[in-house]
Protein 1
Amino acid sequence: MADPRALMAQYQAGDAAAFRELYALAAPRLLGYLSKLSRSRAVADDLLQQTFLKIHRARAAYVAGADPLPWFYAIAHRTFLDEARRVQRGIVKTTDEVPEVAAGIDGQADDRRDEPRVDPELARAAIDALAELPVSQREAVVLTKLEGKSVAEAAEIAGTTVGAMKVRAHRGYEALRRLLGGKPKGAAA
Amino acid sequence: MSDPVDRALDALAKAPTPAPALGNALEAELAALAPASPRRPARQLAIALAASLVYAGCLLAVLTIRRDLGELPRGWLVGVGAAWLGGFALPLYLALVPKRGSMTPRWQAAAALAIVLSLAFVVLGWNVHPSGPSSLYYGWERFSHGQGCLWLGLATALVPVALGSIFLRGALPIRSRWIAAALGAGGGCLGGLLLHMHCRITDRMHVGLIHGGVVVVAAVLAAIIVPRTTDRPFAD
């Protein structure tokens, strides 16, 4: 896998091919993040394009040698929140829309045929339950449990403290447990 | 992985999310792609510190040094001057220079410092304000006459705040207000240093509320105004 630092440096130097590689590397991750936050693939696609436009316009702010991915995620985070504020709701959600992230996962992508098949019912249940969480808890669960970020990385992306991120992730996870019918942590078996 | 939450999250994490092709707007911008210089935080910090100190020095040369300077305790003069100088440099460092390998400025430390500085210089000036025979006393009666110092302090803060906001354009997708407040507090401290060397009004109300108040007002104004510049690349 190409090094995002090197790609970012080449892109900043004016190499459009490096940007395309960077997009191929980062866009699926950012789209996954935005899809799980927004619950709508159409909205997430739009937010992804906006995010990369903003990255492009702010590329002079890149510090040589830094990992650009947390910065990309932070821009995606802000883009999502701006959109959420714009529609003046707690979450960005297309009414009566079947959650497309869950709806489209009963097959496998071409490049993931070796991986175990996804259980669409379980994924649908997860995304429905996630949608019930407040935005801050949903984002904490998405970043720490689904995107594989550490609590510190997640806090950096969301612009909060490590302690607050831990609390949000824990509360979100416990709320998911209630929604998905699991036993609370510490309960007798 | 028997826990239903873990199984459901695992299923969702494995759901493929193939990204769409680049949109037309992005393709159009890429077609006109021009090289951009990377941000060099250490160099920007050096420029901001040097240019601000030269500007403050020029202002002081025009305004003249306080007449009671030789009558005041040397330790207080040097100690408080060093505190003002540190209060100027440290927030600029935290705002402009991210941790190695990161692009995101240390907003938590910068925010904490902006708050501490805003309170500390008001309290310090209120409690420690020696005077000499040539010093002036305004008190509450003529408190408002000292407002010139507030404007002078804010004018001094302009250069570091403006430079910081230019240097950080596009670097702050989140928490830009706190970084801006730190820039303002740093600029306010430079204003405080200038007043420390220029103003001979030594009552606690003036030194605490006006000289210290410069830091508070500069931090608040910067938090309101600076994000308009730094956040511009993120506006729709």
Protein 2
Amino acid sequence: MANPILEIDDLCVNIDVPSGVLRAVQNISFTVAKGETLCIVGESGCGKSITALSLMNLLPKSAKRSANKLTLDGQDLRDLSEREMSDLRGNRMAMIFQEPMTSLNPAYTIGNQLEEAMLRHRNVSTAEARDRALFLLEKVGITAARSRLGQYPHQLSGGLRQRVMIAMSMMCEPALILADEPTTALDVTIQAQILHLLAELRAEFDSSLILITHDLGVVARVADRVAVMYAGQFVETGTTEQVFNAPSHPYTQGLLRCIPIPGKTKRGAHLGAIPGIVPNLVGNIEGCHFASRCHYAHDACHSGDIALQSSFEKSHEYRCLLTPKVCAANLKKGVAA
Amino acid sequence: MSDPVIEASDVTRTFMVSAGFMRGAKPLQAVNGISLNVQRGEVLGIVGESGCGKTTLAKMMLGLLEPTSGTLRLDGKLVGAADRIEVARILQPIFQDPYSSLNPRKSIGDIIMLPLKVQGDPDPSTWRKRAEDIMDLVGLPKRVYNNFPNQLSGGQRQRVAIARALINRPKIVICDEPTSALDVSVQSQILNLLQDLRSEFGLTYVVISHNLAVVEHIATRVAVMYLGRIVEQSDTDKLFKSPRHPYTQALLSSVLTPEPGLGVPDTHLGAAYPNPIDPPSGCTFHPRCAQVMERCSIEAPPCIAMNGGLVECHLYAADKTNERSGKPKVTKRKSSGRRKR
């Protein structure tokens, strides 16, 4: 892999809760190449957001992060002081949060908040920072940008606020952008626009993007590579084509069967469902985390540690004992359908 | 054939919204002249962006808000005049967020039985049995009967909301974004359940959602709302195969299906949803429309019947249909003095 911007090996996040230790993120390893878009997809509570927050070192106090390797463009992030970390945030790595409603400060103008990162990290005058803010606001498609600079967040609609958030993340041309459910709170039409914009800007500034979402439709359209997360682990990783065209983990297969697709699924027919609920992550789970909800599960699935294994194709990995069989069965079904 | 259970004719709802300190209030027309029939046994999907008036319309159907003008009939009776309890007997809601729509201090059993209590069901001794039966039907284990909402997962809570809606056998259920607060794997369970219950009880659904894939899957007819008006309504098949209104076309193109390699569509809609306090003149969609014509900004488009559906757009206006069919079915939209300020 040429030029990995972010390299992570064996990342764990443990959170102290009254009933024990909640293992929110368990042994996650991945790299993000320059200019690449990685999507982390999973249901609520699977640890997607905690993964992102742990990269930015914004975890709550009760959470502890450990990793064998955690580097951004070659710089080790593990033992940085808070001050060194805040030199990176908004500068080399930036985050776009889910709710533009709550992640902008209501007491400061848009202009103020946009300029802040630039003034903090670059040796520039206020006028220069303002020019850059203006340039980016126009770039993200906000009309009358100059007057917007003086406005407060409550004066903007949800879509505009998210555009401001994106502009803000681009102020210092970061090497890595983390977007945590950037379009979940928005209408479908606005969602398409924001994703379009994000892809465009990412390409223009050659940043890498980690997009966290629960929406498989979004993933399929924007990702280069996909990591499917379940109960704190990556259960399947691969290129977008590999994961969507040959899903190899029963969880990924189940998720894809759950979504109605206009024109493809029969109207009114039963959708696939994943029975059961997500296991409690406090303490250790023996065996496969998905075993309790998996209808392929057998005895071997309930014990030991199940490692990620490679599929027939390079860069496609999954965490399941019996996938070659399941895969074959599914391919057959696919041919029949 | 036509057997409408809900008949809305030219319903409007205006809210007075403060325009700013010392500037008095301005009217906001959340619902602006909607005529809509819901037939018995059908599933009507209502789609549109946030702020287009979907929920206001639903609240009026539920009798929670009164229409400013126009009439709304429920099973032949005027909603405003009918007894609230009578409305509740025919019509029940399922709301979006199962975290805030259940009383946290009531047990699941109490929550599910409440409609029976409110509607004065004559036979209290059967309530518990009926609650347990309906819990069984929606897939809730009996052991949660004495639990409280905070002990249940999101999907289970939505099942409680469904059980509560169905316990007294209503004819119509209004689902306002029934699955948008839920994960995909739970969403599919709830959609399956709604389908099963519909055939079991012969229910009529009004499903309000911004998720077009969900609406396509569950609805038999779809109405598309934009800025307080229904701009297109048609059978689901026809609407998704050949959308007429440019807004419907844009909405459909913005649906992201999980098919890799297609990229993100460009909807050409522009950034701004117009301010509903000060809607654009003529066709309210014209500033965002890709096929805008001169007359669009001047006069409101008529409601045109075509291909078994209705569409409000100048593209299909009389002079075009005239030539083809000879007999245009154009109902002139009531011009409202309010719009010409």
